Amino acid sequence: MVIRLLIRTFAIPKDINMYKIITFILVIAATACHVEGKSTTETLQDSIVVTEPEEHHLSLLIAGDLMQHGPQIKAALQTDGTYNYDECFERVKPEIERADVAIGNFEVTLGGKPYTGYPQFRAPDEYLQACIDAGFDILLTANNHCLDSRRKGLERTIEMMDSLGVPHLGTYINQAERNSCYPFLLEKNGFRIVLLNFTYGTNGIALEAPNVVNLIDTVQIRADIEKAKTMEPDIIIALPHWGIEYQQLPSPQQRELAQWLFDNGVDHVIGGHPHVAQPIELNADSTHLVAWSLGNVISNQSKPNTYGGYMVRLELTKKDTTRLSDCGYMLYWVSRPSDNGNKHNYRILPIDEPDSVLTGMEQKNRYAIRASMRRLMERHAKGVRELKIKD
To answer: For the chain, which terminus, N or C, has the lower number of CB atoms within 10 Å?
Structure first.
């Protein structure tokens, strides 16, 4: 019946081959078919999908100098002969861990016993573990104290970090090791970030072969930057150990080197060494951030402005391009056992820790360092806001 109707409707000759008729029917049916309520033409159009680039996000937290003076070592000593630093980082640990990647300057050596503080630092191994437990993911080792316990200390520090699985950069057992892992490539959340770390010197202590320390040598740094560019990074961050101790403003040499780094392809510069906070500046189009000095993370120093500092937080966004979508700094200060009546170990505390939990001496010291650092930032910081340390 259907075939007779088709013959009449489409004037198909009666003597046509039946196979051809069936083929004709199938063609007509296919032309009129719908898939899930859409025509074939619509379905083909819908299958051509233009995908938007995926947006990636990464938060970086960078902190200053992780020191260990003699009184700090003594305060951490337990009755069983081990060392415990848990209380030191307790109040800032959640903030450090909140970042996707946290970086700090490990300004001591792990040269083994006897442990010593200033002027030549040999810290207990437990201090390294405490820094890792506090949330630091990457440690910098190029600083003026990296040779305090000579070749043994440099190599043992690297070996301890390797044994605990913490990435590091700045010093190397030999040139082959440096060649294989420097510049340092950080791959995280879809980003490729190159880190550079170098120091102005080693306190006059001679380097012993075959060890390598990254120094502020513009010929070498230029070569490192060019190598970094071949690694197809989204950004390059330099982390220099530079400046003049206890000076709250950057030196002309710091400014000159920072501009040279930017001119040669570095995106951001985050520095340390002066043991006091220096300002942070972001240029108008948010392409170059420079933090001249983050100050000490923790130490026993008591000179004006040395018992505080700031952590800088960078928020990166990557879609078609990589940009610094937000950044801020977080102020803190250090309470010593002599300040808190020996009730606590050395503690890194948020700058606005309530007076109700502080002794009178802690309140006095906190007020002084807070007033000084905020005055510095109000006068000299550019384009970057203060953030609160969160619990």
So the answer is: N
